[in-house]
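step 4 of 6: structure.
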Amino acid sequence: MNQHLYAVIMAGGIGSRLWPRSRTGSPKQFLDLVGSHTMLQDTVRRIEPLIPVERILVVVGEEHAETVLEQIPGMSRNNLVLEPEGRNTAPCIGLAAVVINKRDPEAVMGVFPADHRIADAARFREAIAAAAGLASDDYLVTLGIAPSEPNTGYGYIHRGESLDQRDRFEAYRVQRFTEKPDQETARSFVESGEYYWNGGIFVWKVTRILNEIQKHLDELYHHLRTVAGAWETDRRREVLASAWQQVPVVSIDFGIMEKADRVATIPVDMGWDDVGNWANLSDLLESDEEGNVVRGQGRPVLLDTADTYVYAAAGRLVAAVGLEGFVIVDTPDALLICPKDRAQDVRDVVQALEEQDLQQYL
Amino acid sequence: MNQHLYAVIMAGGIGSRLWPRSRTGSPKQFLDLVGSHTMLQDTVRRIEPLIPVERILVVVGEEHAETVLEQIPGMSRNNLVLEPEGRNTAPCIGLAAVVINKRDPEAVMGVFPADHRIADAARFREAIAAAAGLASDDYLVTLGIAPSEPNTGYGYIHRGESLDQRDRFEAYRVQRFTEKPDQETARSFVESGEYYWNGGIFVWKVTRILNEIQKHLDELYHHLRTVAGAWETDRRREVLASAWQQVPVVSIDFGIMEKADRVATIPVDMGWDDVGNWANLSDLLESDEEGNVVRGQGRPVLLDTADTYVYAAAGRLVAAVGLEGFVIVDTPDALLICPKDRAQDVRDVVQALEEQDLQQYL
């Protein structure tokens, strides 16, 4: 086991397409959407056999610090990296990198979204171990997910030159990243066999990613240095808040990965799913004979209804007649209804709520 | 004004197709489904210019007596006829008939469901006045509603021989009643021009209907006599309860109208609607540009949604994406979703709730 291997779990998202269960107060990653554990708990459990909880850091909004400590009993408050607000992935990862760098300048860090589902956890850990080896050779490594369909909602990785196998995993240089292609392009990507989905799972040396931030995002780097200088002082919170108002809002993909050299991918088939929306989620869960998935403590009465996901909160009765292919999410104060093929558009509901200043439902 | 003309409002239904707003505790007729008044209030207001509230009786379940008195401030408790339980329309009407007969043996009574909507109240009153004239000539009179479509949910009246005009209304002997025909039959009925919907609005002499009950429903007549004997005593409630456990459960249509002689109909075009289900109701209400009808104190967020009825209870947010032609009724404890063309089947939900012993949602 690599004593220098650290995990950074990014738990800052809001999961707006899983509204009205995912809310600003209790986002997706803190909910038991898929199984009996929350997605954060599943993420930690998945990593722990490879990286002990002492070397697992969670980057999260200040307001969710206690939630994380409740959900992950073994976690030290010291391992929480509290963001004043979300500024996309580059600042988040950069902040985690400076914090780890202070503990262990030889560290290799894996970056893991807190809100993904991975069916084959053993395979996941093998891939991360292999990626850590590649990262030790100064590669920026991203896991490549074999695409199961021409999904236009993901970023794609075009693999290039083949590298030496690592722990029986293929490895490739990355030729190019393409963000959310159109349908035709996505289809050609999938058919070529040379493309993978970018699952947002990265492994690299802490020093390497900080160098890349210095090179491509110098303003962010400047602020990270300031924050690093104040990290062990009682001014940490104040300095971080001030810096976070000024750092560029940019993704690690756009800010670094698309521009850096020596970027590699390790393809892995591990039953990955980003649980992006209600239709996605429904597909992951066991359905009854009619293809319905029923969740929640409430009471469903489904007549002549098929291929429908129903969440009913405790005490609520949800009656449906003659539906096929729908999503019904009935929470104590808010209800969502849409056909499954419109599940992506639930984010528009959240936007409408913001525009109409209906904060209590966000 | 005919001093012998009485009104009997039948307020005993449960409106199961308007679940989950219509409940056993607050059925359809006590709700403000159509406008700002309850359907019972609208029914009384519609009748009052013709028949003063002193001669309007309401037959209702014991449990709703106070509701009626609250909703109709001018009504005397003496004018409530409290049924121990619903036994269909023949016992209900028979009971009202014996009560009125005690007050005025020369009375003519009109029978009015409490849960219908009639747009042209003036025309309605003219028709009732005309029907009262015909009833004085010993006819059993039913109003005939000109059918606007081959609806298979109604009973149809086949008109026979033309009678003399009454107050400028046509009048016909009834040749035959047909309950809920199939689609093809309904179409032929409508095309012939000789059929009307049976709206369940009747006018007749009290003595005539009691004679008919004696003739065709002798068991009911026997019990009604017993009840009549105890009506002014302190045993009224007890005797009625006992009788009501024994009376046949039968409709006035099947029990009397289909068998009696000298039955007449007066056709009237008065914007009648029985507000039978949510799709019906939605059609009666003003819609927005997208054809959506929104009711309730809650908050709707409708994206790319058209031709949809939404009721949102206070405090509830109802979000819909990509729906067309749906009914969404979101109450504090129960939710209904169905396509409009399945609105008739909401009664199956109520039946399922009964079978599953979910009394709290009934």
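step 5 of 6: annotate
 - Residues 306 and 324 of chain A are 5 Å apart (CA to CA).
 - The mean pLDDT of chain A is 96.
step 6 of 6: archive
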